[in-house]
Write a structure and sequence with these properties.
The chain contains 15 helices and no strands. With about 300 residues, the protein is an all-alpha fold. Helix 1 runs antiparallel to helix 14, helix 6 runs antiparallel to helix 11 and helix 9 packs across helix 11. It starts with a helix and ends with a helix.
Length: about 300
């Protein structure tokens, strides 16, 4: 187990380093922040002073080392726009993002998993086909298209819900539904596939031959064995809670981390973008580690394999 944890921890660390390095290089190759923030018409002396103040005049390798040293010290830099700490700007937007992504995740679980199980138990029947049609539609329609359609229906034509902003809880309904629909469709498809694969296994037929009720066979034998692929998808969804609403937040003018990321990228606000990407990487890595731990709890065979591997 110790070897397993060390291996996963090393992979997590390498993943974070890769994400930070990728973001650092891409952002500095995408354009000069001084030219965007000060405008190309600014005096050369002002542009040079800006670059010197933010360390942009130094060689790229030196900027990279200084950035990693600052991260090790807990300093993620300051916004080039208003001079505030980048971490503060990001953290103050996190509650707004979680306010729509957490309910959306619950909506995905409440709809997607039961729909997938329902479709698998009625394979090739009308209920299965209808469920898969809605699942494919929800999976293929982009979030921004679905969001705009919901705005046209419920805001413009019916006038039931506001089209944007965050003043009341009613403003969160459309973003939550938009995010939850696509995720529920993905969960339904994966849950159905996992259930169908398990229901075709010999031990399911053996359990039925022993006289167990079909309900007990499904609940005690099929569902636990079909849970691992579903847990993987759910783990990815949990890891993407912070940055999973970039498009939706822009469509509905929701003041979360996703909208801040769009604005920061457009303004070449390097420290803010890097802070957001680092936070996203930490969330994804943490979710993956949690999923790995859940695997052993769900499937005892994995615990046995890990124990044999560390013996």
């Amino acid at each position: 187990m110790l070897r397993f944890l060390l291996t996963r921890g090393l992979r997590a660390l390498l993943t974070i380093v890769f994400v930070v390095t990728f973001a650092f290089v891409i952002l500095r190759l995408s354009g000069d922040p001084a030219m965007l923030i000060l405008s190309p018409e600014a005096p050369p002396e002002a542009i040079a002073a800006f670059r010197q103040a933010w360390g942009l005049d130094r060689p790229l390798w030196e900027q990279y080392l200084r950035y990693f040293r600052a991260i090790a010290e807990g300093n993620l830099g300051r916004s080039m726009r208003d001079g505030r700490p980048a971490l503060d700007l990001v953290l103050e937007r996190v509650p707004a993002t979680l306010a729509i992504t957490v309910p959306a995740l619950l909506l995905k679980l409440a709809i997607g998993i039961p729909a997938g199980i329902f479709a698998a138990l009625r394979r090739n029947q009308i209920a299965d086909r209808m469920t898969m049609i809605f699942s494919v539609a929800g999976f293929t329609v982009p979030n921004f298209v679905l969001g705009l359609v919901l705005v046209l229906i419920f805001s413009v034509h019916l006038g039931w819900l506001p089209s944007g902003g965050d003043d009341t809880w009613r403003h969160a309904i459309l973003p939550i539904v938009t995010l939850g629909t696509a995720g529920a469709a993905v969960l339904a498809r994966f849950t159905r596939s996992a259930m169908l694969e398990v229901l075709g296994q010999p031990y399911i037929r053996a359990a039925s031959a022993k006289g167990l009720s079909w309900r007990r066979v499904v609940l005690s034998h099929a569902l636990p064995n079909a849970a691992i692929p579903t847990v993987t998808i759910v783990g990815f969804m949990v890891g993407s809670l912070v940055a999973g609403a970039v498009v939706v937040e822009s469509v509905f003018s929701w003041p979360g981390v996703g909208r801040l990321l769009v604005v920061a990228v457009a303004n070449r606000d390097l420290a803010v973008v890097q802070a957001i990407l680092l936070l996203v990487a930490l969330c994804m890595v943490g979710a993956n580690l949690a999923v790995d731990a859940l695997y052993g709890w769900i499937d005892p065979r994995l615990r046995t394999q890990r124990a044999a591997g560390t013996a």
